[in-house]
Amino acid sequence: MAPHRPRLATGTQLLAAALVFASAAGARAESRSFPLDPAHAEIAFRAYAFGVVPTDGMFSRFSGTLTVDPDAPGTCRVDVNVEVASLQMSNRSVRGEVLSAGLLDAADFPTLVYSGSCDPGGIDGALTLHGATHPLHLAIVNSPPRYSAEAAIHRRDWGITGRPLLCGPTVRIRVSTTISR
Predict the structure, then answer these.
(1) Which of 50, 63, 68, 109 lies 20 to 30 A from 35 at CA?
(2) What is the CATH number of the domain that holds 65?
């Protein structure tokens, strides 16, 4: 049996292949949006009571999107709205305190909102919380298939100064999701 020799492409075949490649390269892929809701993501926080005892909570009602552009790796858009009263905590009395006028004040400030865009160092955006809007940078932590964005906020920057021993001065926020291809 004679050895198989690859056929050389003709000029017409090379031109056709180049045209297919050029048209594919010129086509722009659609941006993809992924839901940020309780079925696909988690929004949680951790504060330290008395500076040492971790106090955790998570929100059960929120909606938003993570939009990525396949033609621009590393760029994205994040928009999320959270219903503050949906806070869940293991201790009901602590939950009541956190939602009270001295802290999150869910009655007067029923939502918190974050909008931001990815950059090489994370997500830069703005957090509206407790009636105040300030810049907030979220660091991206990739642990496939889970992706998280985390930040620490200083409560006083948002006018949340009540109960300093219950929550401490800093609260860590984490938004995590699983992105399916």
Answers:
(1) 109
(2) 2.40.128.110
